């Protein structure tokens, strides 16, 4: 009963000082909207980073596909010779994988190492053997997600070149090409160990030069067809199969379906299925860095909201010294009087959430329909359009934070109220 | 109230607002404290009403020694035992007449029906029924003061204190407020202590305590009017 009355007093006072209330609510709403929009931008960035991780490149920094299938032993034991725990019957395995729902493509890949030489100079490499036609499925997947933005055609072009290279074509990182003085069309030699432990040499022709932002990758990575890699190692196995799904969010669902399908009881060879996020070190490190930046922004915004609300609250107590004195004189204890101001802060918070959601929606629409072109992110050559995602999952947290900070500002008045002398405040004007 | 003193300031500039005052209010008394401006009337009422603390002496309210209690600790005593009527009414501006009167009861933990009945009765009695939905700014000074009296009465306190309740009112309205207080004292037996420097007011009341320079000079008891 009395708490309801205090809430009513709080509301009526907010109404009475409507201009001040509106200003405070506007500041807090802007804070809410700022956080929500940052959240939406964060979601957009992370989703871009996620898809980039899945689609772009051949290492832990990208190109992981949605899921990867290995032989179980590959992760548990050290191989005695190349591809000891590779997948031999991968055509059959790929057929099985394709029969799982939501799987759009299967990409065999071979990871191998060795030396590359131009006859005079040689350097070690980390190689990936791929099926160029199938790798294009990743590019296609990328394009379906980012149908709105400009296409990044460089990767696609590379695979086309690799596929078209008569035989034994390789794609070199720009750093490696420079080190070897190689250009498109140059003949080079790959040296590696076969499964029997012998040294083998394969002649290759440079089909294209990749521009990769990561210096290490640029210097040591090369890409070739599966056949070339198998030829070098004298094997008919591949290291792993990548799966491309029609939607990233189905990853976990497909993961269990795939696992039970290929590890059916009775099968002798056991496979491990690993989702992209367990393979993506770069993704996680970037995400962590972003989180810190966004978290810091959040703290500053909330602080501003808090200070603005605290200012309003203190002004409100100063103006109502006489009312507070009267309530004290009547015999209402300080904690009840403080509760009244706590309510005011709380109501400001509630109104700010409503206003904030409205602001956020308006700004989101403006940004998303405005098609603001952003400069290419690191590692990309194309521009993209700025998008703000709904980021609904952030809203409850932002709301709580906002309510907490405005309500706390009401709590601050407690100190002021406790100090007020009753007698002096009764005649205060 | 025994040997009570109240000082303002320290050192050279110390003002003695009350000095060694003994004062007693008996149930059903109607006392007026008379004195010049600055004589210490308000100070005495504030101490009696437990909204200020004495520097010396003891104050006992209904057998409870309040000397060692803080103003915050005294809040329940104010709520239960004391009703205050101020010179400048001091109603809560955002509450209606009804809500202002209801307010102290809400903090006494009474049930809804009791509260409603009590507030209704008091407003009826003071002729404020038509005004109960009005906010303080929509009422005249006399009406506001009657609402303040209703707020003081509604908790059924043992003592009502009124510090120059008529000073902000014209003489006719002031007289009607004094009539009302006298009436309440006679009909309900409420103890009242009122301060005033207005001789018209003072003359209406039988029990007069004169105060000057913080000391009680003379107490007189006239025949009731
Ligand atoms: N807050 C204060 N600080 C300093 N001195 C004060 C304070 N309040 C009152 N005094 C002093 O204490 C003395 C008594 O004041 P008090 O208000 O009790 O007088 P009063 O009889 O009520 O006067 P009035 O008729 O003008 O209301 C005065 O000298 C006054 O100046
Ligand atoms: Mg006075």
Short characterization:
Chain A has helices spanning 2-16, 18-55, 72-76, 90-98, 132-145, 154-164, 174-180, 215-220, 226-233, 251-262, 281-319, 321-330, 334-370, 395-419, 422-426, and strands at residues 67-71, 103-117, 122-130, 169-173, 187-193, 199-210, 221-225, 240-245, 271-275, 373-374, 384-385.
Characterization of this structure:
The complex is a heterodimer of chains A (429) and B (225). Chain A is of the alpha+beta class and 429 residues long. Chain A has helices spanning 2-16, 18-55, 72-76, 90-98, 132-145, 154-164, 174-180, 215-220, 226-233, 251-262, 281-319, 321-330, 334-370, 395-419, 422-426; strands spanning 67-71, 103-117, 122-130, 169-173, 187-193, 199-210, 221-225, 240-245, 271-275, 373-374, 384-385. Chain A has two domains: 3-50 and 284-426, no CATH class; 60-278, no CATH class. Chain A is built from 15 helices and eleven strands. In chain A, the strands form two sheets. Chain A has a six-stranded mixed barrel, surrounded by five helices. Chain A has a two-stranded antiparallel sheet with strand order 10-11. In chain A, β2 (103-117) and β3 (122-130) form a beta hairpin. The radius of gyration of chain A is 31 Å and the shape is elongated. By secondary structure, chain B is an alpha/beta fold. Chain B has a domain at 2-91 and 156-221: 3-Layer(aba) Sandwich (Rossmann fold). A six-stranded mixed beta sheet of chain B has the order 7-8-9-3-10-11. Chain B is globular and about 50 Å long. The interface between A and B is medium-sized, with 27 and 32 residues. The complex binds adenosine-5'-triphosphate and magnesium ion. Magnesium ion (MG) is lined by residues 41-42, 163-164 of chain B.
